[in-house]
Amino acid sequence: MDQQIFVFYSILIIICCNVIGLFLSLVSIHVNFLHRYRIQKRKIKAKTFYNRLPLILFNIVLLMIISSIGLYCLHPLFESSINYDIRMIILQFFIILFIDDLYFYFLHAWMHKNSFILDKVHRIHHKAIAPFALEYIYVHPLEWIMGYFGPFIAIFLISLFTPISILAFWIYQLVRNIHELDVHSGFKSIFSRWIPFWGESEHHDLHHEKLDGNYATTFTIWDYVFKTKIDDDKE
Ligand SMILES: [Zn+2]
Ligand SMILES: [Zn+2]
Fold first, then answer.
1. Which of 102, 132, 103 is nearest to 204 (CA)?
2. Residue 112 alpha carbon to ligand 1 centre in Å
3. How far, in Å, is the centroid of ligand 1 from the Cα of 211?
4. Residue 234: band (very low, low, confident or very high) from pLDDT cuts 50, 70, 90
5. Ligand 2 center to residue 182 CA distance, Å?
6. Rounded to the nearest whole angstrom, what is the distance from the C-alpha of residue 224 to the centroid of ligand 1?
7. Could you report the per-residue pLDDT of 81-140, keeping only the tens digit for each?
8. Residue 234 lies in a domain
């Protein structure tokens, strides 16, 4: 697949996910009857949303620029045309998701243990005590840039053995982005709570409420393995 087309579709996925995020955020602020489905009783003020929008938009634009350059340069590591081998797609998708998630767990836990980084960098994200969807990227730019190494480490490792499946990468992008919107949406989970070790919205919402524990995002298993799982004492 041509370099420009590959980058174009990858960026399109980012744009589509963020448009969904914008819609979800506006719904959680302006559609009052949906408040009963929110995890926390705290109401999100429209003023808070519009105050946070400039940093959110800045990060999304920067994300698209860095992703375009990064993917353009990494394009030789990807297969030359789309391969529809389902087993390879599923395998690579889970490897990227798994490595990225483990990397994120350690990065996130470190940002909480290091008081300097917590105060100067990660504290911005934690201004959201009861988050709305787009607050997944209401972070210090350094925070998501550090986090962005996760999938690229995975891509590099897989490429040592085989070319990266374009579809596996696109599915990873889609799932990871939608999952981030979901866990920051503030809405109670419907299906995800029934998938074992899958990070549901209550898991990350509690992390925002307590500012401690539940550092895992996609797979909650890391919080059990490293004993950082916290429970909601309201239940
Ligand atoms: Zn945190
Ligand atoms: Zn968060």
1. 132
2. 6
3. 6
4. low
5. 10
6. 17
7. 888 899 999 999 999 999 999 999 999 999 999 999 999 999 999 998 889 999 999 999
8. no
Cα(108) to ligand 1 centroid in Å equals: 6
Q: Which of 224, 223, 173, 217 is nearest to 198 (CA)?
A: 217
At residue 136, the pLDDT reads 96
3-class SS of residue 198: strand
Query: How many angstroms does the Cα of residue 79 sit away from the middle of ligand 2?
Result: 33
Distance in Å, CA 133 to ligand 2 centroid: 9
CA distances to 75, 83, 166, 230 from 3, in Å:
6, 16, 12, 44
Q: What is the pLDDT of residues 12-35, one digit of tens each?
A: 999 999 999 999 999 989 988 888
Q: Does residue 65 sit within a domain?
A: yes
In angstroms, what is the span from residue 106 Cα to ligand 1's centroid?
11
75 is in which domain, residue-wise? Answer: 3-225
Cα of 123 to ligand 2 centre, how many Å?
A: 11
Say if residues 80 and 3 touch (Cβ distance below 8 Å): no
Pick the ligand that lies closest to the CA of residue 130: 2
Domains: count for the chain: 1
What integer is the mean pLDDT of 219-234? 89
